[in-house]
What does this fold into?
Amino acid sequence: MVAGSALLWSTAGLFVRWATLDTATLVLWRSVFAALTLGALAIARGGAGRLWAVRHGGPVGLLFIGTSVVSSIAYVLSLRLTTVANVMTVYAALPFLATAIGFVWIRERVSPRFLVAGALASGGIVLMAGGATRAGDLAGIAAAFVMTAGFAVQLVAIRRYGRVDVMALNACAALVCVPLMAPFAVLTLPSPGQLAACACYGALTTGFAYVLALEGGRRVSPGEVGFISMLDVVLGPLWVWLAFAEQPGLPVLAGGAVVLGAVAWYLWTSGKVAPAQGGDAAMAG
It folds into this structure.
């Protein structure tokens, strides 16, 4: 399930390139299909009351909806401004950004391993950004960072507030995007091919990918989820390279290798440290 979700997520850049729509119009139609998919899945699993209950979400619900709206817009914008490889390299730093936010927000302890791995990942992103030759690449990298930061805030909020109906909240967030984008979008019906790309992006990349990640993540360890999710970072640039001959430059490949290496080392050493800590705690008990 987790591998399936990573595979679906990796197609985002492919569908954005296929749609050939401006950012606002693409976000609008993607949001329509995402809201329909996530809303239908939420109702199927909990009835219409599950969506209606979102109105009682309070500040936490507003936080989730707000960060989801900003992240989804920034994601499409980043894919429009720069290469998929650049976007995926920034996104690969998600575990480190989430840990840093968790340290500031909920005072989660940060290990020396995290500081080392985070420094390496930051160096990889700087290396990649330093190789950017266009202003659009730098703007796209900045948008990708905003998108990744939004996802990181959601991850920490889930840990902080526990039982949050993320599926229903994301369905509402997708619905909110529609009127927000309408004033800036082309409101004529896209061509069948463009509409199909938007439908695939909203239903598959956003809707079903999320459900698979949610269900699969309950059955395997967080470390395994982290490793498997890196398929997204590797496959995303591959699809656009095969379909559109969008080749990443040497700085992107070098920076991406550094980021992925830092993530892999951190997750691998986490798996080794956790059992030792558990054993010490058991002996102390």
In short: Residues 158 and 164 are 7 Å apart (CA to CA). The longest helix spans residues 250-284.
